[in-house]
Design goal:
Layout lengths: L2 H14 L3 E4 L7 E4 L4 H10 L7 E9 L7 E2 L12 E2 L13 E9 L4 E8 L11 E3 L8 H12 L2 E3 L28 E6 L4 E6 L16 H9 L6
């Protein structure tokens, strides 16, 4: 971590204490997790306090933690058949398994030329306990307006206090939230034009659900050499 980020980390801990929890990063980003109840007050301090001056919200997105640490991932390690699905096991203490939806905030201070990332678990977002909710930060950073609408549209996260929370990418009649981990890959409904009714109609999707098993891509110098020499067997 650079000296500038270390200085920022010291100021954040000194200002907020136990209200923020440092999150380990593999790419050098300074990340803190905080409670949903503290989001607005901490956001306003980060924007207005001269030692922070995070005047821009660069990005905001949702994360669905359903089956966190259990799902299978693409890997270059393969079996003798050349096909494989890798599983990355997570530390059980890294994330409360009862929480499902998280909102990530990427902040930029144009004055101090530093970046900060916040991670907030949504309220009432526990598995099977209703719609996830979190306070809107539009009153703090106006750029959050369309970002929050996108997270609502794709993840179904409700942003309390948003001035115009409605879908932004999917159709008005769209059913469900397509970035949720339990949303079917083929969708719930399909659209077609009905010549008899002379209008577009929605109907249950007619595609059979199936699981997509990714292939493992392996780098093999033997094949590279064969391509170079023109000795590739296309049979």
């Amino acid at each position: 971590m650079s000296a500038r980020l270390e200085a920022l980390a010291s100021r954040v801990i000194a200002q907020f204490g136990e209200r923020v929890k440092p999150v380990a990063s593999t790419c050098g980003e300074l990340t803190y997790e905080l409670a949903a109840a503290d989001l607005l007050s901490i956001a306003k301090t980060l924007r207005d306090d001269p030692q922070f001056k995070f005047d821009q919200l660069v990005d905001l997105t949702g994360v669905d933690l359903l089956k966190y640490g259990q799902d299978q991932w693409v890997t270059k390690q393969s079996t003798r058949t050349g096909f494989s699905r890798g599983v990355i096991r997570r530390n059980q203490n890294d994330q409360d398994p009862s929480w499902r939806f998280v909102v990530i905030y990427h902040l930029l201070s144009t004055v101090n030329n530093v970046r900060l990332r916040l991670r907030v678990c949504s309220e009432r977002g526990q598995i099977g306990q209703g719609l996830p909710q979190i306070d809107s930060v539009v009153s703090v950073w106006a750029s959050a307006n369309w970002f929050e609408r996108e997270a609502f549209d794709l993840f179904g996260i409700m942003f309390k206090g948003h001035p115009d929370l409605r879908r932004i990418l999917t159709d008005y009649g769209f059913i469900g939230h397509p970035f949720r981990k339990d949303f079917p890959l083929i969708g719930n409904v399909e659209v077609r034009y009905d010549e008899t009714q002379k209008r577009v109609i929605y109907q249950p999707v007619s595609i059979e659900p199936r699981e997509l098993v990714p292939r493992v891509i392996r780098d093999d110098n033997r094949y590279d050499a064969a391509l170079t020499s023109g000795k590739v067997n296309h049979g």
